[in-house]
Amino acid sequence: GAGVSQSPSNKVTEKGKDVELRCDPISGHTALYWYRQRLGQGLEFLIYFQGNSAPDKSGLPSDRFSAERTGESVSTLTIQRTQQEDSAVYLCASHRDRGTDTQYFGPGTRLTVL
Amino acid sequence: KQEVTQIPAALSVPEGENLVLNCSFTDSAIYNLQWFRQDPGKGLTSLLLIQSSQREQTSGRLNASLDKSSGRSTLYIAASQPGDSATYLCAVRGWGKLQFGAGTQVVVTP
Fold it and tell me: What percent of chain B has pLDDT above 90?
């Protein structure tokens, strides 16, 4: 079946603009994660959705960042008033509703803020 | 707070040598540990998943061990090939989210 997909694959924006990134998880996967990876660095957890439970937003770096997910489908990550330090690859991952499952990653969205 | 460390940060070996990549974590209360491969400009590909009750997992030339009590995992890649060149990340799954190490960048020279 299809894997995790993300769009756009690349986004270039000007400082101060808002951007919206999209993630389509694997069908049937109730858990969805967003991560950020800055150039040459490891993955930084942003937010975690599990079914209809309240999301774990503990990784969001500021109130300019927000994410939504409708049920067990697509998720959008919104960054308002983008700053140059927001430039990174934003990765989405999903897995089934079991603590023992493999996480599957999308190809990422490369965001460049000029 | 879980801390995940990978040593070395970078590794270069000639083709045919075995690779040994280390991952350590500070909190042994984990559900599982996962090894990923990341190629430049691409997302992550899962290589092996070890449940907290397991000691090792094998897939082809890859073998990963887990010693939960000492907070360590090792990824072995036998008879390395130039196509194994990538960054290898380990991640531990605690309550909810994965915590990643910074990765080991591997270069296998022909």
Answer: 83
